[in-house]
Amino acid sequence: MPAKYELIADELRVRIMSGELRPGDRVPGEAALVERHKVSPPTVRQALAVLRAEGLIEAKHGVGTFVRTPRVKVRRTDERYQWEKNRVHEPESVRRTTGATEHDTGLTMPDLSFSAKYSSEDASEDLADAFGIPVGTRLLRREYRTRPQGEDAPFSLTRSYLVYEMVKGNPDLLDDGNEPWPGGTQHQLFTVGIEILKITEEIEARPPTIQEAAELGIPAEGSAVLELRKVSIDTTGRVVEVADVVLSGDRTKLVFTTPLASWTERQSK
């Protein structure tokens, strides 16, 4: 049998999802919920904590608790990288019109605020293993944040690593002032003669760190993030980029499409 706080959370959730309580509406106060459900204040607080963790409500200090305006969602599919690769040979005027974030959200470039920060870093044991290079090899570390205009939290926390020796032939790739780069990473690597042939992604769900929760605008307790490691491999089998991405669980949908060989095709071989 559900606990009392779960029943209270369910009732409020239904009212929010049905539109009875709309974004910006005040949620019934603690005293009103205590009276309505004949429960103790801690039970009501537990129910409200569940809804805050789900991103449905937010507390405004000294004012009350309100239905939260839904944040822009991200829909990441496994087709996004082929879409990016197809654009590598397009003219800059075309590449400047949209990027991967716009592809994933349906927003346009004026809808977004973007920042990038580059630095140099020696490869840790973890990164050296991912790249297949010696520990201490010089890497170009790139940190990206993209958020919708009008929101204060980014879609993700992204750290991308390139081997410095691979990309130093084009000095423009070492300057974060050239971001956002028209065409993204695949076009950047194309300028130094690198073609990406395969990308692998490993994804784990976990609670956020306190710092991640603060930056992503989610509760530190009761929330989940998706930690994604992306490894890009070129036509020679060499790893050319490793990226670590932390995605907010309340605004991210991952979609995978896996082509399957038909039995007829297999039997004909």
Largest sheet: 6 strands, antiparallel
Derived structural class: alpha+beta
CATH superfamily of the largest domain: Chorismate lyase-like
In DSSP terms (H or I, runs of 4 or more residues), the helix count works out at 11
The run of helices and strands is HHHEEEHHHEHEEHHEHEEEH
Topology, element by element:
Blueprint: H1 4-17, H2 30-37, H3 41-53, E1 57-60, E2 64-67, E3 74-77, H4 80-86, H5 92-95, H6 100-105, E4 112-122, H7 125-131, E5 138-148, E6 156-163, H8 164-167, H9 184-190, E7 196-206, H10 210-216, E8 225-234, E9 239-248, E10 252-255, H11 263-268
Parallel strand pairs: 3-10
Antiparallel strand pairs: 1-2, 4-5, 5-6, 6-9, 7-8, 8-9
What do these coordinates show?
The protein is an alpha+beta fold and 269 residues long. The chain is built from 11 helices and 10 strands. Strand 1 and strand 2 form a beta hairpin. Helix 2 packs across helix 3. It is elongated and about 70 Å long. The model has no long low-confidence stretch (mean pLDDT 93).
Task: Offer a concise description of the structure.
By secondary structure, this protein is an alpha+beta fold.
Which keywords apply here?
Chorismate lyase, 269 residues, alpha+beta, 31% helix, two-stranded antiparallel sheet, 6-stranded antiparallel beta sheet, 2 domains, elongated, Arc Repressor Mutant, subunit A
